[in-house]
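Researcher: Let's continue the batch. This sequence belongs to Beta-phosphoglucomutase, and it's 215 residues. Same format as the previous ones, please.
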Amino acid sequence: MHNIKAIIFDLDGVLVDTAKYHYLAWKRLAQELNIEFSIEDNERLKGVSRMNSLEIILEIGNITLDDDTKIKLAEKKNIWYVEYISKLTPADILPGVIDFIESIKANGLKIALGSASKNSMLILTNLKLTDYFDAIIDGTKVSSAKPNPEVFLKGALELNIPPCQCIVFEDAQAGIDAAINAGMYCIGIGSKNRLKKANLVLSGFSNMTFDKLGL
Ligand code: B16
Ligand code: MG
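Model: Same format as before. Here are the structure tokens for Beta-phosphoglucomutase:
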């Protein structure tokens, strides 16, 4: 990989661990619907849009509902989720993230966000990360969810950098597929066993700088 000009970060699971809050809120909704929803099931929701997450939970419970009811349930879950993420502070940024971002800036690269979340502005504001980003593309700006490449292609477009000169950091299979579909080099954050399709996998950003990637 040469001539990298931009880094696109996924949000949940890459910069901050919000999966636990999604889980608590979905679990509460599942309980109301008498659906057994485990922490293992929650893995299937990572990187997946809010409505698609609800569909997966309803499928687990073998429940069919009309669209209006589904929208109301998703809104209810989101109110609980927002209660949790309203309490986030910069202390919740995952280890090594700030130093890694600073090293990207020092190399003159651009930075974008490519998240499925419609709550990304609240999360970035609470983490005090907003000012680092040259472009922010999230669930409020796309019509197709990951693994569709739209979120990352829009990020590259807004930065005015060709997709082949962008690197995506992702923690979820749907996001890795989206990055590959966008023609971007993809670095997985998490375990090598789970993120097999990524070009490279890191356990996290601790002690990591852009130069250490050796790209
Ligand atoms: P919201 P990411 C994704 O964010 C989460 O991984 C996924 O679990 C969630 O369902 C999705 O955002 C939508 O989030 O309900 O806040 O709009 O990983 O793409 O940053
Ligand atoms: Mg994620």
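Researcher: Any comment?
Model: The helical segments are 19-32, 39-43, 50-60, 67-85, 97-106, 120-127, 150-159, 173-181.
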